[in-house]
């Protein structure tokens, strides 16, 4: 017998009394190496206001007391164990879940209509063996199986495929890794350099993804924004579908509970047996759907349906949501300061 601990039901069942609608939203990601400097890191807020990203993937960010300095408290941040790579999820991000941090990378997961999407930021020094980082990424990808993945990394590797005039050993190792893991490179051969310092220029910042459909929905661009860093912002936009389901709501405050239990009780034995005999993911999903249908049918027979009007919000947007979070953070600081003064 299987247990529900092993499975995550990604999509709700389609009942005959439910209605659904699907919208396709553009999800934006920013990527940049901040060269461990305070001033480039402080440009993140301005870049956020300009491009409205859900997640910012950073490398060599400025760290103070174990955290990325100079960003709003309402932004959630996760760092690699060596503090060289970080993921920043903004308030507009749809319920991000921290996955894991390794020495050179950090990963978080978000949910979309097509299933989960894992976002990974990684950095590796040009003076170390790159195979350590590639092995870390390999382990994460193995655990994720067929799930979609976006990886933004500064790997300091040269290859003609992503813009360099030459190829080094690290570049060949990265190319082999991409082929072995069936990853799609978003970088374009003729793109502007992602790194410029005096007379030097390069393309060390790479973006690659897993999932054919996901690859076809993404655009990739090097921005010309002034960053105070020798690296440039990279803008990645993906079209991600999201479905919205609505179900009747029942009036339960006026009795009818005994009648509902009587109707449900007629199928209890059959439902319990179906769950106990489930030995695959599909069997358990089917049994769960039948249980939900039985509860819904019993409620239909026992309760009246609530009537309500759908309110459509046409003015609330991502920028206002960010301002709301920042205002709440300021209120908390004011209360803390007031308590300290009183004491």
From TrEMBL:
Pfam families, from UniProt? Answer: Exo_endo_phos_2
Q: Name one GO molecular function term.
A: catalytic activity
Gene3D superfamilies per UniProt: Endonuclease/exonuclease/phosphatase (3.60.10.10)
Residues annotated as domain Endonuclease/exonuclease/phosphatase = 118-234
Q: Region (Disordered): which ranges?
A: 1-25
Q: What is this protein called?
A: Endonuclease/exonuclease/phosphatase domain-containing protein
């Amino acid at each position: 017998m299987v247990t529900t601990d092993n499975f995550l039901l990604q999509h709700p069942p389609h009942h005959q009394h439910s209605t659904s609608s699907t919208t396709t939203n553009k999800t934006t990601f920013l990527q940049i190496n901040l060269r461990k400097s305070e001033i480039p890191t402080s440009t993140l807020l301005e870049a956020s206001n300009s491009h409205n990203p859900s997640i910012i993937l950073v490398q060599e960010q400025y760290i103070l007391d174990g955290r990325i300095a100079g960003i709003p408290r309402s932004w959630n941040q996760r760092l690699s164990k060596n503090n060289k790579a970080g993921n920043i999820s903004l308030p507009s991000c749809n319920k991000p879940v921290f996955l894991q941090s390794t020495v050179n990378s950090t990963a978080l997961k978000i949910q979309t209509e097509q299933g989960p999407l894992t976002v990974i930021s990684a950095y590796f020094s040009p003076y170390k063996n790159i195979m350590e980082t590639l092995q870390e990424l390999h382990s994460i990808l193995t655990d994720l199986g067929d799930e979609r993945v976006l990886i933004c990394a500064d790997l300091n590797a040269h290859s003609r495929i992503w813009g360099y005039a030459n190829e080094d050993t690290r570049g060949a190792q990265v190319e082999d890794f991409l082929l072995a893991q069936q990853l799609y490179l978003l970088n374009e051969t003729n793109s502007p350099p992602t790194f410029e310092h005096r007379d030097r220029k390069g393309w060390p910042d790479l973006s690659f993804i897993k999932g054919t459909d996901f690859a076809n929905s993404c655009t990739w661009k090097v921005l010309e924004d002034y960053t105070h860093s020798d690296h440039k912002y990279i803008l990645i936009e993906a079209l991600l579908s999201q479905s919205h389901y609505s179900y009747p709501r029942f009036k339960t405050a006026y009795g009818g509970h005994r009648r509902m239990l009587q109707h449900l009780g007629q199928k209890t034995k059959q439902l319990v047996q179906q769950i106990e005999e489930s030995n695959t993911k599909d069997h358990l999903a089917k049994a769960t759907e039948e249980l939900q249908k039985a509860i819904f049918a019993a409620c239909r027979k026992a309760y009246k349906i609530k009537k309500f009007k759908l309110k459509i919000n046409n003015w609330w947007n991502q920028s206002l949501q960010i301002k709301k979070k920042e205002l709440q953070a300021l209120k908390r600081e004011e209360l803390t300061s007031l308590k300290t003064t009183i004491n």
